[in-house]
Amino acid sequence: MSTPRQPRETRGQGLEPLAVLPVFVPLQGKRAVLAGSNGGAPWKVKLLAAAGAEVDVYAPEPTEELAAVPGDVVAGRVTLHRRAWTPEDLAGAAFCIGALEDEAECVAFVAAARAAGAIVNAVDRPHLCDVKFGAIVNRSPLVVGISTEGAAPVFGQTVRARIEAMLPRGFATWVAAARDWRETVGARFHGFSERRVFWERFTDRAFAEPDRAPGARDLADLLGETQAAPKGGAVTLVGAGPGDAELLTLKALRALRNADVILYDDLVAPEILDYARREARTMLVGKTGHGPSCRQDDINALMVQLARTGKQVVRLKSGDPLVFGRAGEEIDACRLAGIPVTVVPGVSAAQGAAASLGVSLTHRDAARRLQFVTGHDRRGALPEDLNWGALADPSVTTVVYMPKRTLRVLLARAIAEGLAPGTPALVTFNATRPNQAVVRGTAADLADRIEASGYDGPAILMVGEALSRGAAILPAEADQAAAAS
């Protein structure tokens, strides 16, 4: 029997150290100054004007490109002064840029601008900058800024290009609509949870139809849907997959974004919690094989209690919650208490392991059936009621969950019941994670191979002729084979 433990609240690791603080500066209607005419000057002036600033440019000998900027701006205002700057020119400026070739003059400009209370940037002189410009993805009012802190500008530009491709240009009209509708939504729905429902549905609609401009009918529909949405708390059982965060489904991501509280198991990969809202509470309700575990009754009671207070509760489980995840007990507890409960399936450990190994569990030349079996019962022992005839069937692929404690006796009994000793068998540890490891063998020798390997972590056993069909040897396995030879 495992030692009981109590659910406990956890905290995310928080932000990692930041090289710079990403901030956004409103410049609409404010005065900005640029002095000089080096190569970066024209683009900087255009950026300031695009943000709505009234820009005064001081350049005794402006380049042809800089001189043409006042006629190119799409917003704001640009005035070109064909003379050198003076400290008096900086009075009242909110933002100043030095685009000067001479270092000493640039230092003097920065000092004067700071004395005037302005934010300062010096082109190509990061040591003089209060702020720095990064790559920009413009779907205004949706704006994405990207910085590599000067370490890899080309890399930053490539990231910008990738994000450009991911964000449809139509998002600009949706974000503009959100800005225009915010007051109406706030007046209709006074509670935070209702407003969040509205904006979640708004976001789903924007992603579904990004290239269509939203209109009054969209607003009316979304207001009606929000009004009709169920009120109060609910529970969602979510499959986190076997480890690789990229295997999360879109529906799982949406549930994590919407959760007020997330109850998760030890086997859930930590990076998956990074997809949750920053404001969400996270609670470890550790369910580990043969180790200290929270009692299932305590988990059920906690889910119900939180949902009754109006919380959106996500019960986050490794793999698929409906495959040896005790989901049935949690669903029954919610229904008995009158709490709405839904299930978001996940990629199972069997699917993840098979995909990472490149094997088909139902290869038509080797397997007519696929069966999932648990490796232990409530007491942690080999279940007494396993169908040994089915386990010994040469035309089936068997996947055994939680097999570590009983693997040796399970395989020995299967062989005794008729399973061919040479049947291909393998165990995958930490399936789909960076530290995944695989031990291959046969039903007769796999237990010895595992014991010699020293591998640990969540494990899944697979047995059957299908495992020998088209399975490539992964790099980790090649290293393992070389070490054994």
From TrEMBL:
Active-site feature positions: 265, 287
EC number: 2.1.1.107
Pathway(s) where this gene product acts: Porphyrin-containing compound metabolism; siroheme biosynthesis; sirohydrochlorin from precorrin-2: step 1/1; Porphyrin-containing compound metabolism; siroheme biosynthesis; precorrin-2 from uroporphyrinogen III: step 1/1
GO MF annotation, one: uroporphyrin-III C-methyltransferase activity
Domain of life: Bacteria
InterPro entries given in the database record: 4pyrrol_Mease (IPR000878), 4pyrrol_Methylase_sf (IPR035996), 4pyrrole_Mease_sub1 (IPR014777), 4pyrrole_Mease_sub2 (IPR014776), CobA/CysG_C (IPR006366), NAD(P)-bd_dom_sf (IPR036291), Siro_Cobalamin_biosynth (IPR050161), Sirohaem_synt_dimer_dom_sf (IPR037115)
Family: Belongs to the precorrin methyltransferase family.
UniProt protein name: Uroporphyrinogen-III C-methyltransferase
Organism: Methylobacterium planeticum
Lineage: Bacteria, Pseudomonadati, Pseudomonadota, Alphaproteobacteria, Hyphomicrobiales
